[in-house]
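TASK: fixed-backbone design
INPUT:
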């Protein structure tokens, strides 16, 4: 989680969960929340750390509590931060996700889905949409192979940027796996056209 942008939003989101669930009308009414301790309404258990949250509002404890209380109230009925979650792992700006992805320890992940071992990897639909946009086509036109270069570029990027299996890419385009392999090998050694370079940039592939 990118601390600067999302820590406060998540702190507020958590203490407002009982309201969203219709269990209480106000955050202080839920007894099993950190809200009461953070605002000073309840004693703070030894295992609960509230200073780090309050310090984000003000150096003065009394002002920090007041600002925190108002911040939580202002969030009632607000939007959820979860739509911006990437790969069930990263919550932050694109730059933060790229930095965090380089720090992910991937050893011993044999039973973890591929999408979660590299959560910043583009999905197939995103790759097709970006290639189609570069060539002024629809994604359906690309997969129907109506434009030779766009089709071959999409094949290559689905393998290179999306890490899709040969068989999956072949099924998408109605060709054989060997044809997919040949296209990929060809584009790895052939100078790219201007549109192919644009598609590569759109899909954030390192050449």
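OUTPUT:
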């Amino acid at each position: 989680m990118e601390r600067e942008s999302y820590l406060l939003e998540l702190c507020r989101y958590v203490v407002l969960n009982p309201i969203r669930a219709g269990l209480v009308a106000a955050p202080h009414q839920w007894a099993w929340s950190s809200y009461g301790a953070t605002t000073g309404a309840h004693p703070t258990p030894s295992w609960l750390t509230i200073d780090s949250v309050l310090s984000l509002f003000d150096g003065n404890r009394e002002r920090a509590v007041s600002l925190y209380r108002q911040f939580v109230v202002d969030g009632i009925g607000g939007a959820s931060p979860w739509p911006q979650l990437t790969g069930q792992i990263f919550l932050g700006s694109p730059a933060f996700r790229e930095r965090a992805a380089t720090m992910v320890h991937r050893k011993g992940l044999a039973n973890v889905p591929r999408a979660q071992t590299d959560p910043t990897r583009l999905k197939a639909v995103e790759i097709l949409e970006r290639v189609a946009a570069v060539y002024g086509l629809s994604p359906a036109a690309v997969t129907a192979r109506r434009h030779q270069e766009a089709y071959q570029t999409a094949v290559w990027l689905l393998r290179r940027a999306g890490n899709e299996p040969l068989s999956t890419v072949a099924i998408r385009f109605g060709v054989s796996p060997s044809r997919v392999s040949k296209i990929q090998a060809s584009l790895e050694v052939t100078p790219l056209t201007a549109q192919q370079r644009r598609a590569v940039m759109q899909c954030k592939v390192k050449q």
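COMMENT: The radius of gyration is 24 Å.
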